[in-house]
């Protein structure tokens, strides 16, 4: 089932039926909450949830759809001063990411706060409202031969605000970096309703603390990101993707090849290792496969393809996907993980893990994930970047088996100084598994920051590390 | 070596000397302290209480703990090349000099990272790994002597940051001594995205007000396969500015895109590294492209075309590495070169949206005329980071003040067009009040709130980065009175 607030048509229907819905559940809701919200927003911006218990949690008794920063500020000010808890949602793709609250008082949706605020083509900067879906933005920018240099999951639904708040990134991070390298400014609505600007609109800026960094990846626990300014990159003039499948599956061979490529002067955009199961889904070959992409002028891309062909190990097969086919591959790639907007059937539990290790240790993590499949009686698809050290592991199976796999992988990466973050898991299981793993030794600083910015724990309460 | 005793009546100095191992690692006599009364920003000066030279993170932690317990103000200092006064001991601080902690601790080429101590010199890192074909990207002009610890404090930039980013984009982890003396490790193994708020991002560029970095894990990069450098001379500043925009609009991401105006060219040609630029041109561009060899010629061709379309007088491609290095030496010593044509100069560091370049340069010209002071412009045109150099003579009464006012006005112009007051030099002492050009009181408080989490007693590098609250009220009051 997809989110109901999908079209203008639905919205009209919802508005029409609002009174009916409201009457049905009003008894369960503090009338005060609703009447306060009504003094801030129009009725059509308020939706009372009939069913509070979403299987992924992170719901609200009342969903609000502010259309201005002022409305956001007023909702937060009210909530913060009256002890109400607020959960923030964008496109809902990360609904299963963290959070120990099944239902907060208010679910603040950014879905109606979208659009480009300012795009200065010559400066290659873009200011956009946080609720804008990522793919819509990229399509808009493509008309100007520009792009945001990020490749998050589920771009059709994920909002730019959500991508940044959760610090999502994809395989092309190897070349282009992550949100912290692209975001140059933000507007944040603090829990007390104050609007704070961080950074600015210029690509280089060291005035004051780099407050942008504080909000990127903060999972909405410090403020509501309302606007984001990004530096853009030109669209590559040409791109291609090499799929290099290792028929023997020897990790030493993959490692030797990767090290050789990394030590060359080639400039791959991604160097992503796919587990055999994932490779089978995407390429039809159930063997370890490297997805090596190049983006540059056409001559430079072909030159690099030739280099890879020259150093191609024996016992491998190679497919080169030119521009269009490469894009088709990636579009499919970005939707391989679970999507928090979809409620799967209850028979199988789905989990998504983000595992961080030192770059080349990705080999070990992907191998271990592959081996765990049979041992743990679950289906696992995994990939990881040999140039950046981040892996995504998708696990499907019975609840207890999934939980066991998470624990096993945590044990596995501990000696590698790595971490496992659970990016998607049903609410019930999040009670049993610590989504963020153990607290860092400097946790008191994180707690201190939270206490200064959101002393009442109004925003996304217990959604982040150590219960922040 | 025998440990020499410190002879002074100051108990604190004796105790600090004990921590660092005796007289050879502490300075406390006035004549020795004079060298530490300012950094690269020479207009403000103040003597420190002492300068200590710890050799390890543990010694740093002990010094900090001691200062914290005895309420002694303190600050960290690297090579002292900072241009905004971040290392000036405004409150008679104990200066913790990190210049003896200068080891390269490890290099891991396969995983592209290196671990250094804070006093390690920026360019030395590249020199240590260049034989393997690797380098460290951030390249401030002072890179031959500035330290990586200082780069972290200031979030230093450089000419090649247009393509490769500034210091913060290359920091993977650090060990930090907090202002109470507690030592923490943030991600020293360099694994990306550790769970929690991004403290690395917050600490980088915090100008030494949140903690003292004692170990840094940095990203290193593989050298580009090919590199080409273009020098273009223009008769009109507007044509040069337009060429900058056109190059970027063509979808080229140059490694560097630098500009100098006529006054700046006069300076660099009179100084140590002249390259024979014509004296009568209005602006020059220094453009560098790097990457895969097969694609470079195409990009150079496009750049030459753009320059010609914008009425370039002469444009040439560096014929060899020697010529390229000469061009860069001429540019990188540009600030100091102003000493050849003016007794004193003040460097500013505003940032503007690239498209406002012609407008802003025109307004800087007006400021120059208004104050009767020459202003040279040397800057990173590609990312809109201007460096107006206000030329003045401090011996003439009132001229220093005039230079400061002119510099501040340049920053006001940058702020007016939607830019920033500093792109890479930091706020320090110099631009504290100018913070108000771009931030509201609430936004400044949001930042000092974060400082209070790390540095609650404000003993570490107090008085930097943020405007003085008292003064702001006074200024407002004066303005109100004037209105009456």
From TrEMBL, chain B:
Protein origin, superkingdom: Bacteria
| Keyword Oxidoreductase among record annotations | yes
Q: Name one Pfam family in it.
A: FAD-oxidase_C
Q: What class of enzyme is it?
A: oxidoreductase
Its required cofactor(s), as named, are: FAD
The record's listing under SUPFAM superfamilies reads:
FAD-binding/transporter-associated domain-like, FAD-linked oxidases, C-terminal domain
Gene3D superfamilies for this protein: 3.30.465.10, 3.30.70.2190, 3.30.70.2740, Uridine Diphospho-n-acetylenolpyruvylglucosamine Reductase, domain 2, Vanillyl-alcohol Oxidase, Chain A, domain 4
> What name does this protein carry?
Glycolate oxidase
Answer yes or no on keyword Oxidoreductase: yes
Occurrences of domain FAD-binding PCMH-type (ranges) = 44-223
What the entry lists under InterPro entries is as follows: FAD-bd_oxidored_4_C, FAD-bd_PCMH, FAD-bd_PCMH-like_sf, FAD-bd_PCMH_sub1, FAD-bd_PCMH_sub2, FAD-linked_Oxase-like_C, FAD-linked_OxidoTrans_Type4, Oxid_FAD_bind_N
**Enzyme nomenclature, EC number:** 1.1.3.15
Q: Which GO terms describe its molecular function?
A: (S)-2-hydroxy-acid oxidase activity; FAD binding
* The species this protein was found in: [Anoxybacillus] calidus
Query: What are the UniProt keywords, alphabetically?
Result: FAD, Flavoprotein, Oxidoreductase
